[in-house]
Design goal:
Elements (H helix, E strand, L loop, with lengths): L2 H29 L10 H37 L1 E6 L2 E7 L2 H7 L2 H33 L5 H8 L1 H4 L2 H12 L5 H8 L11 H29 L3 H9 L4 H29 L3 H6 L11 H11 L3 H34 L1
Antiparallel strand pairs: 1-2
Helix pairs in contact: 2-14, 3-14, 4-9, 4-11, 9-11, 11-14, 13-14
Main location: membrane
Membrane topology: Multi-pass membrane protein
Subcellular location: Cell membrane
């Protein structure tokens, strides 16, 4: 075979080999993922975090000045022997006698008992009535918005104004509630002049005002429950009562925990309602811890004991808050499972 033929054969074989292998090689190259270097985000994130803290520092400074400093200063005063003078007051030393006086004060325990009882009664009633109102609102159609607006009127009312309104209704001379009780044969009511009726009247006023708040929170939770859950329960033959206890209520437990948390914190620090209606009376029957601290600090000018009352109340509220937050995390974890 000549040299020219051999070269032609070699070239032809090479071309055929390239035709066989070329497309597959190109496909492999196309399928091979391109390697990209991940950008280094650590330094960028740290820089953005520093910028964020820089912009937030004025607001944080204001919050610390109007919130943290008064709290810390109250704690310091609660452990201090404070002496009043014409120029103000001075701290003569530190002591635990202010808290020892609280532990030996029957008035403090009476105020604590009233505050706890008032909180338990009002929160339970508001939770039950608010849940019932939310269930009704969920089933309404076009009228839901109007009824919701009317329902929110008591909640939107200023606390002092609402308390004064109920004071007019409970008045023994011209109050509508007193007149109705007397017309029904209940005798002269004197609602706010006796301990038990005064406590009940105060609880009614608080439930009337804050039940819409609980209803709005529960309604928001009801709107988040998937409809297919109710359809599955209906297919399984579950009735309305069973569906509520087995389907609706378990789904609402995190929302109810939030409502209980907010209402407990607000009810435990109640001040305006008993202050306007009864001034803590008759006697000290409706005196809350907030009113006790106000009277001790501003009326009796006992700065150390008054600060001790305020600090102990804040500690109790913080303890309740931590317990409810722990319960709320447990509810969320259980819901996730």
């Amino acid at each position: 075979m000549s040299t020219t033929s051999q070269m032609s054969t070699a070239v032809g074989g090479t071309a055929r080999t390239a035709e066989k292998t070329g497309p597959s090689d190109r496909a492999v190259r196309r399928r091979a993922p391109a390697r990209r270097r991940a950008p280094a985000r650590g330094s960028t994130d740290r820089r953005l975090a520093r910028v964020g803290w820089l912009y937030a520092s004025p607001a944080l400074t204001v919050v610390a000045a109007v919130t943290l400093f008064p709290i810390l200063f109250s704690v310091v005063l609660s452990f201090s022997e404070v002496r009043l003078s014409y120029g103000g007051f001075r701290i003569d030393g530190f002591t635990t006698g202010n808290y020892a006086a609280l532990l030996h004060s029957s008035e403090w325990f009476e105020s604590l008992a009233f505050t706890i009882g008032f909180t338990l009664v009002t929160v339970v009633l508001e939770l039950a009535l608010g849940t019932a109102a939310a269930l009704v609102l969920e089933r309404l159609g076009a009228a839901r918005g109007w009824i919701l607006a009317v329902l929110l009127l008591p909640w939107a009312m200023i606390n002092v104004v609402a308390a004064q309104l109920w004071g007019y209704l409970y008045n023994g001379t011209y109050g509508v509630v007193s007149w109705a009780i007397e017309a029904l044969g209940g005798g002269e009511p004197a609602i706010l002049g006796r301990p038990v009726p005064a406590m009940a009247a105060m609880a009614v006023a608080d439930v009337w005002k804050t039940t819409p708040f609980v209803a709005i929170i529960v309604l928001a939770g009801l709107m988040q429950i998937p409809r297919d859950v109710y359809e599955a329960a209906e297919i399984d033959g579950s009735g309305p009562w069973t569906t509520f206890w087995r389907v609706t209520l378990p789904q609402l437990r995190p929302i109810l925990a939030i409502a209980v948390l907010f209402r407990t914190l607000q009810a435990f620090g109640v001040f305006d309602l008993p202050f306007v209606l009864t001034q803590g009376g008759p006697g000290t029957a409706t005196q809350s811890l907030a009113i006790l601290g106000y009277k001790t600090l501003f009326q009796n000018l006992s700065i150390g004991p008054g600060a001790a009352v305020a600090t102990s109340t804040a500690a109790l509220v913080m303890g309740c808050c931590l317990l409810f937050l722990r319960a709320f995390r447990a509810q969320v974890a259980e819901g996730g499972r």
